[in-house]
Write a structure and sequence with these properties.
- The protein has 448 residues and is α/β, with parallel strands linked by helices.
- It is built from eleven helices and 18 strands.
- The chain has helices at 2-17, 32-45, 95-112, 116-124, 135-148, 171-180, 199-210, 250-263, 284-287, 294-301, 322-338; strands spanning 50-57, 63-69, 82-87, 126-130, 213-220, 223-228, 271-272, 275-276, 281-283, 305-312, 344-349, 360-363, 366-371, 377-380, 385-392, 399-405, 411-412, 415-416.
- An eight-stranded mixed sheet has the order 1-2-4-3-5-10-6-9, sandwiched between helices. Strands 11, 14, 17 and 18 form a four-stranded mixed sheet that branches. A four-stranded antiparallel sheet has the order 13-12-15-16, with no helix packed on it.
- Strand 1 (50-57) and strand 2 form a beta hairpin.
- Helix 2 (32-45) packs parallel to helix 3 and helix 3 (95-112) crosses helix 11 (322-338).
Length: 448
Amino acid sequence: MLQERTAAWLCALLLGLMGLPASGSDFQHHRYEDMVRALLAVQNECPYITRIYSIGRSVEGRHLYALEFSDNPGIHEALEPEFKYVGNMHGNEVLGRELLIKLSQFLCEEYRAGNQRITRLIHDTRIHILPSMNPDGYEVAARQGPELNGYLVGRGNAREIDLNRNFPDLNALMYYYEKTNGRNHHLPLPDNWEHQVEPETLAVIKWMQNYNFVLSANLHGGAVVANYPFDKSRDPRIRGRTTYAATPDDKIFRQLARTYSYAHSWMHKGWNCGDFFNEGITNGASWYSLSKGMQDFNYLYTNCFEITLELSCDKFPSESALPREWLGNREALVSYLEQVHHGIKGMVYDENNNPISKAEISVAGINHDVTTGVDGDYFRLLLPGTYTVKASAPGYLPSSNTVTVGPAEAIQLHFYLKKAPKQNLKGKHHHGKKNISANKASIKLGPR
């Protein structure tokens, strides 16, 4: 008996040293009610740095609960970036769901333990964690369980719609604008878009509209690779051939993907699940073209940069595999989150020090602008280097500045805009054709 108690104590001690909660029910699959209870337990354990809120409901009426970590939950603090993790978009790809529940527990435990790295992250970042975007699909998959789960069972929502093929297709419009020197950010949504998407997709889009997210990752399964935009090819698909579709921010996206891959225990090695991806990263369209996906939508409709993380060969791994997967992903999840603090950030004011919302921030040589939030703050992810940055807003004279970005925290660069003379009050002309029909092609259902 003494030996058993000693062994149990040592196990708990080792788990504690690794920063993991040492409760006996750590590594398990969470059905919907279990997931909600787990999130509430974290909120109860760390009430002053967390907030649970619902972004909407699924087809079957389940709340899509998000857990927020911040030193001021529920409040956007100027110059503090917003970050999100989204899991379980495909209901039968369950590892992301479990990792995000575990990450929530880990952040709470480490904050309470005084971990300086985690404390600083929570004090300087507003972190939003959505463990399950598709709780209805998960319940379908979970009824079969890990042993019998098919490749597609539970993938879609309750109406069997693939949520990662359900966002408005802004790529076609973007590719048209590239040729006509049109708008390069915050593209307009099509008419009646709210009636063309599923409730879960609608909830996530409204979420994006309400929070000025800067960086995000979408957790999937079925491969092991960090996938970055664009997912949709610029060229009509030719059978047996894929083409790389780079964003204007291709270099930073590649670096973001590498950050996760090299912090992951084995993703960066390349050979996984019978596939080889150099450095454990891939451009989405270079892998296979995908229309109406969430990561491209983030980039084209919001200020947010999102990548898709494929995290396991097995879409529904057994509970016994979860401890290894957590240890393999833990550092990567934290390291990726820290990337939200790179580049530049600042405020845009008028001459009376009033913040200007929706001002455009453009970087010379990168054809993708970002905008200020309601508080007049902006965040622009950039690699180290020297850049010319311009701030502009309707009714004001633009202002430019040169800044050198280092490898450490974001450089603060503020702008003060002067009112334009009345004859110069012509705003930018950003209108273009809204409905560009994409070339029709057969749908390929890969892991994404």
